[in-house]
Amino acid sequence: MVRRGASALYHPFSRRFLSSSSTTTHTTPRKPISGVDMGCQNEALEVFDEMLQTKQQRVRSIYEYNRLLTSLSKKKSYHKAIEMCRRLRFDGALTPDIYTLSILMNCYGSVCCTGYGLGVLGMILKIGHDPNVVCFNSLVKGLCREGRVEEAVCLVGNMKDLGCVPDIVTYSSLIHGLCLAGMWEEAMCVCSKMKGEGVFPNVVTYNSLIHGLCQAHELEEAKAVYAEMKKNGISPNVRTFSSLLHGLCRAGKLGEANAIFFEMTSCGIIPDVITYSSIIQGFCSACEWKEAKVILCQMIINGVIPNVVTYTAMIHSLFNVGNWEAAEHMFCAMKINGCIPDVVTYSSIIDGFAKVGKWEEAKGIICEMTSKGISPNLFTYNTMIHALCHTGNWEEAKAIVCEMKSKGIPPDLVTYNTMIHGLFLNGIWEQAKDILREMECTFITPNVVTYTTMIHGFSNLGNWEEAGRFFSQMMEHGISPNEVTCNVLISTLIKDGKGPEASRLLDFMIERPNMVTDSFIQGLSFCDKKPAEEHLRSISA
C-alpha cells in the first residue's frame, strides 16, 4: 500500500535523480567545506553556489552537500534546503544517498508538503534502497502535522513490511497526532501496542497522552496516565504539569490544581508562562480574581513575563466582577509591559465596557483595535451589536451587521437572536419577522431562545395570536419550551386576565411533558401545596 501511495506522488524531482550518474568530476570550491560556518545560512549557500559554478576538476562528495543541507534544516530554512536539492537535480552531478533523501523528506514534512515527501519515499523504493526509520519518522510527523492522521496510521502499519521497525519517535509522533485530532482512544491503543512490542513510552509520549486527554476533558484517564508515568520511573516535566493544570483548572477543580502545582514546585520544576496562565485562568473562571492576582504577582517575582493569555484572563475576570477600573488599569499595564493585545483581548474589553453601560469607552477600544490593524471577529461584532441594541442604537447595530457581512463574516445564531431581541426592545417589532425569514434563508435554525424572544415580544404587545403561532411553530419544529418560555406565556396570560387560555396552555404542557415543563408544573404545585392546575385556576380566577 505504501509503495502504491508513494508511486502516485512520484514527481519530476525524483525522476531527475534517478537518471543522474553516481559520481561526476566537478570543480573544487574556493573555500573548503571544512572551513564553512554551518551555523551561518548565507555562508553555506555561498559555498554551495561555488560548488556548482567552479570549473576545476575534482570529484565531489555527496557528504559535502549533506552537511550543507543539515545546516539549513537545523536552522529551519526548509525552503532553502529544498531549493538546494532542486538545483542539485539540475546540476546532475551526484546521486543522493539515503541521508540526503531523509533530510529532503523532513524538509517537505516541515513545510506541510508531505505529499512530495511520499514521492521521495517512492523514489527510494524504486532505486532499491531500504528506507530507514528516520525517513518514516519524517513522514509520520509531516502527515500528523497536516491532519492526515489515518494515513500516518496506515504508514506505520506498513513499516515492517518494508523492513523497518517503528521506534519510540515513530510511536510518539503518531500518538501526538492522534491526540491533536481528538482521537485519544486510538492514541491509547497505539500506546498499548507499542508496549506490547517492547517499545516503552518516554516523557514525550506521556506528555502527548496527558495533553490530549485533558483537551478531551478525560481528566480521570489523564490522571491514570500520570500515575503510570511516575510508577514507571519517568519524571514529569513542566509540560506534563502544565497540561494537567490546564485541564483541572478548566474543569473548575482548583483544589486538585493547587495540589499538582505544589507537587510541581516541590520537585524543583520551575513553572513557565503556560503553567501560570493556566492557574490564573482557572481562578479567573471561578471569579476568584484576588487569588489570580496573587499568582500573577508570584509569576512576575519569579521572572516569568505574563503573556497575552495571562493578561486577557485577568481583564476578563475583573470585568466579570464589575471592577472595570481595575480591568482598564490591567490593560494599560499590559501595553506598558510590551505585551501586544490580540483580538480576544480587545473583544473582552469591548464586552466588559458594554456590559457596564460604558459604550463610549467601548467605541474608543474599537477605534484603537482597528488602528492597530486588528480586525474584529464574530465575537467582537456580536458584542458590539448586543451593546448597541441594549442602548437603543438600533441603526448603529444594523450598520455593524452590514459591516461584518461586507467583511465576509456571516451572522450566526447569537447575532440573529440579539437582533430580534434588540428590535423588540426598541419597539421595531415589525422587522423581527424579517430577521427570522433571513435566518431561514441562510440555513440558520432558530432555537428556543429565538422563539422565546418572539413569544415574549408579541405577548408584551398583547398580540396573542402571533405569540401562539410562534409557540405552535416552535413545538412543530421539535423545540421544547424552556422555563422562560413557560413563565412568559402563563404569567402574561394571567396578568392580562386570560385565565382560561392559561389553563388550556397548562393542559397542553401536561399532555406533552418534558423535563422543563415537569419542573415548571412541580414548581406551581409546590407554591401552595396543591395540584398545578388547581393552583393556576385559583390565581387566574
UniProtKB/TrEMBL annotation:
PPR repeats: 132-166, 167-201, 202-236, 237-271, 272-306, 307-341, 342-376, 377-411, 412-446, 447-481, 482-512
InterPro entries documented for this protein: PPR_P_subfamily (IPR050872), PPR_rpt (IPR002885), TPR-like_helical_dom_sf (IPR011990)
Gene3D superfamilies per the UniProt record, alphabetical: Tetratricopeptide repeat domain (1.25.40.10)
Alphabetical list of PROSITE patterns matching this protein: PPR
Superkingdom in the source lineage: Eukaryota
Keywords, comma-separated and alphabetical: Repeat
A Pfam family per the record: PPR_1
Record's keyword annotation contains Repeat: yes
Keyword flag Cell cycle: no
Similarity field: Belongs to the PPR family. P subfamily.
Protein's name according to its UniProt entry: Pentatricopeptide repeat-containing protein
